[in-house]
Design brief:
The chain has helices at 2-40, 44-55, 68-75, 79-91, 121-127, 130-137, 139-145, 150-154, 158-164, 166-190, 208-216, 228-231, 274-287, 309-320, 328-337, and strands at 95-97, 103-105, 197-202, 220-226, 246-250, 260-266, 288-299, 340-347, 352-359. It is of the alpha/beta class. The termini are far apart. A hairpin with a 5-residue loop joins β1 and β2. The protein is globular. α2 (44-55) crosses α5 and α10 (166-190) runs parallel beside α11 (208-216).
């Protein structure tokens, strides 16, 4: 009888332990569920950020705090709806609301204005444009098909769509310039270039980076190389400090590049798959003068699972383009395929690094 009692006591304890374990597991799952639902709602923050950028609300906060009603009158929007957008932006520190219900721009939100240096307004509009937003919503297509979602949605590849849609092209190029402008000076400060010779900015857009490089390197001459419709919007002639030291070259970097002593490729290689990149870098290698170097200015995906903007950009590339963000090993392999050798990687104060290659 005593043995039976002990066994009963043991069974009772085991049952209690199991119930406790089940309860703890259920609590963990409830927390997980709440966390994932909150994460899934995160897409509404960039939607609110875009809405604020579209109506120019930040410009009307430049002179100080204002109520949603005042802002709605100034922007031609619905006051209650605008308040709801601002309330969400306040949770992320873009704006702040005082006790009287007036909103003000925080330091973090200042670049949402269109009338300040390094305005990010058009960059926000570009990154949340339908050409980026819609493919991101169908990212699962990339997983099942192994291809970009963009082609299926818009009926053609990313850059072909740009060539046929002036609105989209304008959003992209103006937005990219706004995204690049704050980066250009700190990146130019890190680039190590020859004292004399020619630097070619391949796919250089409106010339913001090239202008910074020429300012910092008075012995260099520069070539801005891009498609004709892109070069039409260049800003090099606005800078008297570099007058007479630059030229424009129209062309397709998949066909050839102008000869040079150094090449800059900023946010170019991440747009394209390895074969396409090897073609462009191969043209640079063949046109490179003796002792020259190729500087790829892109994000380098770090080791480990810590947060880094490159990991988000990588999914944007997967959804809308054929390219990807690359690791140090990926760059080494890419350069090797183009007859180049990875020499070193120099970090910058931005998310981009200077990935330097020389002739193999």
């Amino acid at each position: 009888m005593r043995q039976d009692k002990n066994e009963a006591d043991g069974n009772g304890a085991t049952g209690a332990d199991e119930a406790s374990a089940d309860s703890a597991q259920e609590a963990r799952l409830r927390r997980s569920s709440a966390f994932l639902v909150d994460e899934a709602l995160g897409f509404l923050y960039p939607a609110a950020l875009r809405a604020a950028a579209d109506v120019g609300v930040a410009d009307h906060l430049g002179n100080g705090p204002a109520t949603p009603a005042e802002l709605a009158a100034a922007t031609g929007t619905h006051a209650q709806s605008l308040h709801r957008v601002l309330r969400l932006l306040a949770t992320r520190g873009v704006v702040a609301e005082d006790e009287d219900g007036r909103f003000t721009l925080t330091d973090a939100g200042q670049a949402l204005r269109s009338d300040v240096p390094y305005s990010a307004r058009t960059a926000v509009q570009m990154l949340t444009d339908r050409t980026m937003w819609r493919p991101a919503g169908e990212l699962s297509r990339c997983l099942t098909d192994g291809t970009t979602a963009f082609d299926a949605i818009f009926g053609m590849p990313f850059f072909e769509h740009f060539a046929q849609d002036e609105r989209t092209a304008a959003v992209f190029h103006v937005g990219m310039a706004a995204m690049s402008d704050p980066e250009n000076a700190p990146i130019a400060a890190v680039c190590e270039l020859p004292g004399t010779g020619t630097v070619v900015d391949v796919g250089g857009g409106h010339g913001g980076l090239l202008a910074e490089v020429l300012r910092r390197n008075p012995g260099l001459e520069g070539v801005l190389y891009d498609r004709a419709h892109v070069l039409a919007g260049h800003r090099l002639d606005a800078d008297k400090e570099i007058s007479g030291r630059w030229s424009l070259a129209e062309g397709d970097f998949f066909t050839a590049v102008p000869p040079g002593d150094a090449y800059l490729l900023k946010r170019i290689t991440h747009d394209w798959d390895d074969d396409a990149c090897a073609t462009v870098l191969g043209h640079c290698r063949r046109a490179l003068r003796p002792g020259g170097r190729v500087l790829v200015l892109d994000a380098v995906v770090p080791r480990g699972n810590g947060p880094h903007q490159s990991k988000a950009l990588d999914l944007m590339m997967m959804a809308s383009l054929t390219g990807r963000e690359r690791t140090e090993a990926d760059f080494a392999q890419l350069f090797s395929a183009a007859g180049l050798r990875l020499a070193r990687i120099l970090p910058t104060p931005t998310v981009l690094s200077v990935v330097e290659a020389v002739a193999a």
